[in-house]
Please model this.
Amino acid sequence: SGFGPSGFGPSGFGPSGGMHGGMHGGGVAAPVLDVPDSEWMFPLGDDAKRINCGGEVAYARQVAKAQGKWLLVNLQTVDIFDSHRLNRDTWKDETVLSLLESSFVFWQRADTSTQGANFLRLYGVSPDALPLVAIVGPTGAKILERTGFITPSELCAALVEFLEANELDSAEAPKVRASRRPVRRRSDEYGDSDVEEAAVHPSGGQGPPGQLGQFG
Model:
């Protein structure tokens, strides 16, 4: 942890101009408002689109709470190649998708979409911190986050470790492991060159923007 000023496609719905994100609540699909697939070198795959929750992040939190799952957020930007790599590699991985379906509600947006921009504003996330992958708990606090590209194997290991250490309805603060990863600097050009990733600061923050630990 894709998407003029609104960042919408011609119809304003979904990366390819349609609605997706599944049926929630009373059987009505909340729309995923995002930029069109044509803006992506590697658009989000069909399987990931199918589980991409519609609506604003507050709605996704409600869905996660109703389903007894954690919320996993991915904020993307078409300007950084790491976002395209996440779509190409991580969100197409079968093990990642299986983990997401079983234990998380997945919510991906671009920073230029209205729903993505609202998340950045609510959580005080800088555009320089994108792409962002974060776990959001029932209180709305960001618990873990990772800036930049994360491989499927790294993400699976981090998610399994997190799930084994935490219960969704526990009264205790979520347990997170500190990372020794250096701070990542945003690169200005597309490229597969090595990038530094965000450091982690475990905390028991409550509510947005919240303080958090990070994957690593």
Observations:
- The beta strands are 70-76, 104-110, 132-136, 142-147, 213-214.
- The chain is about 25% helix and 10% strand.
- Confidence is low (pLDDT under 50) at residues 1-27, 178-207.
- The first strand starts at residue 70 and ends at 76.
